[in-house]
Amino acid sequence: MNAHEVKKIMVKDTLLYLPARIIEGVIGLVTITLYTRFFAPDVYGYYGLITTTINISSFLLIGWLIQSVYRYVNSFDNGNKRVLFYSTSFTLWLCTNALVVIAGLAGIILTGHAREAYLTDLLILSVVMFVTFNTNQVLTTMLAAIRRTKLYLALSIFSVSMKLLLTVFLVHTFRTNSYTPASAIISNIVVDAVVSAIIVLRTKIYRYFTFKFFSKRVFRKFMAYSLPLVGVNITMSILNLSDRYVITPILGTEQMGIYHANYTISSTVFNLILVAVMRGVYPSILKNWRQNNKAQTEYFLSQAVRYYLLVSMPALTGLSILSSAVSKLFLDEAYFEQGFVIIWVAVGMFLYGLAEYSNKAWELTSNTKPLFYNTVISAVLNVGLNIIFVRTYGYRAAAVNTALAYLIYLILSLTRSRKILKISFNPLSVARIILSCVIMGLVVWSEIRFMQISVITLALAVITGCVAYFACLVLTGELKAEMNYLINWVKSMKKQ
User: If 0-12 CB within 10 Å is exposed, 13-18 middle and 19+ buried, where does residue 489 land?
Assistant: First the structure.
């Protein structure tokens, strides 16, 4: 497969992922909107702590398996190898979850929470949610890696939609919103379990599950790749999520709830962008690397960064201009804080996304030690700054510290990864994207200046901004290649 064909596949996959991710993003914003109206800030703060803890726990305890599955699933592509791969992965997944469940239940008993029924219920639900969440993560990652793109995207949209609908149903049916976020947790458990079952049945991977075939070779391969990532996962968790654990004891769960709600808006948007682009381009990058084609790998990695900039820079611009309006419209009045957190977290997430692309150099070579050093430095900086400034300046300091920590992380990643793979930034391409963002920003700013903020005016501003941005990209010639691919693809579809 030549470079032209590979790039065509990259463009096609990215164009498939992006619309689906946009839909997910919209549903995600609606979810935040309703959750902040269902739950008081302190209750939402508890929910934020629970989901944060589950994310950290899953990242630490099962993240190595998720990363290994994504990295090696396509390397075991015949019958016998598949049995060894999936059986080993399944056994490792089962053992990890069994240990977590035992440890979690033992911890609940030993800490004596049985005297507080609702708290005990939350902790038990959290343990169950950990299992269903990481199961869903393993299977959806596998689905993306084997390029079952349509099923992956359909289930992603189904997941976020059903979690929202089920939460609404439970809240209104059982009136559980007064003191506990149990309804939201139960929704996550049920939907993640259903999605996992659908993936297993549709892909028929259960055919390869057996305890008779645990491969030490596969296990050693996983360990050689992922064991250094355990340290990375720990420090990355501290870097990404430690601010919640600093804010809560210093400022309380109510302030934590406000911070978490505004943080989630930016993180939702940028995580979707990062995943959408990475899912679309990474298989092509990995394929070229396996073929020992370093030059092509560098080229496609650079293209991936370009795609990320094409989507993330207008998102950053739009969120910055509309931050106050977004906070006011999507969050309950109790959570409104002028959009400060949204802006700074958006900046941080943008920088984090760039760093993740440069880190692919270390992942491809299976040399993850530099990642560990980079995350340690950035995480220590983030925690230290939060401890110093949150008490004085409140949760807003945590948002600024997030951006600063990710900036350091990006600088370290870029400077060190260039020894392995060089990411090329085309100055003309970057200039075109920046120019298009400036024009888009002026259009959006001009609109909202003279309009009363509402859902309709916000939607209108977003649509006109997107049109202006796209028009500028086309007129400057930045999307020439992609437009040609799209036109040819439409023509081929008509012929069929």
Answer: middle
Same domain as 456, residue 379: no
In a domain, 496, yes or no: no
Same domain, 143 and 185: yes
Q: Kindly report the pTM of this predicted structure.
A: 0.77
Q: Write the CA distances from 429 to 261, 302, 310, 433, integer angstroms.
A: 35, 12, 9, 6
Q: Nearest-CA neighbor of 181 among 358, 29, 49?
A: 49
The pLDDT tens digits of the residues spanning 85-133 come to 778 888 888 888 888 888 877 877 776 554 555 667 778 888 899 899 9
Domain final residue pick, 425, 440, 463? 425
Q: 3-state SS of 3-58?
A: HHHHHHHHHHHHHHHHHHHHHHHHHHHHHHHHHHHHCCHHHHHHHHHHHHHHHHHH
Pair 377, 247 in one domain? yes
pLDDT tens sequence across 281-296: 666 777 777 777 778 7
Residue 464: exposure state from Cβ atoms within 10 A (0-12, 13-18, ≥19): middle
CB 378 within 8 A of CB 409: yes
Co-location of 329 and 441 in the same domain: no
Eight-class DSSP state of 331: S
399 and 454 co-located in one domain: no
Which residue in the block uniquely carries the two structure tokens 């925690």? 383
Q: What DSSP string describes 257-269?
A: HHHHHHHHHHHHH
| Any domain includes 343 | yes
Task: Examine residue 223 and state whether it is found in any structural domain, yes or no.
Answer: yes
Last residue of a domain, one of 425, 453, 474: 425
Q: How far apart are CA 345 and CA 400, in angstroms?
A: 7
- Reference 266, options 216, 220, 330, 205; nearest CA is 330
Residues 11 and 28 in one domain: yes
Per residue in 288-306, is it b (16+ CB within 10 Å) or e — as a string?
bbeeeeeebbbbbbbbbbb
Same domain, yes or no: 136 and 273: yes
- What pLDDT, in 10s, does the model give residues 354-386? 888 888 777 777 677 788 888 889 989 999 999
> Would the CA dihedral through 279, 285, 288, 289 be positive or negative?
negative
Angle at 85 between CA 79 and CA 90, to 5 degrees: 120
Residue 479: give the domain boundaries.
426-490
For residues 480 and 339, state if they share a domain. Answer: no
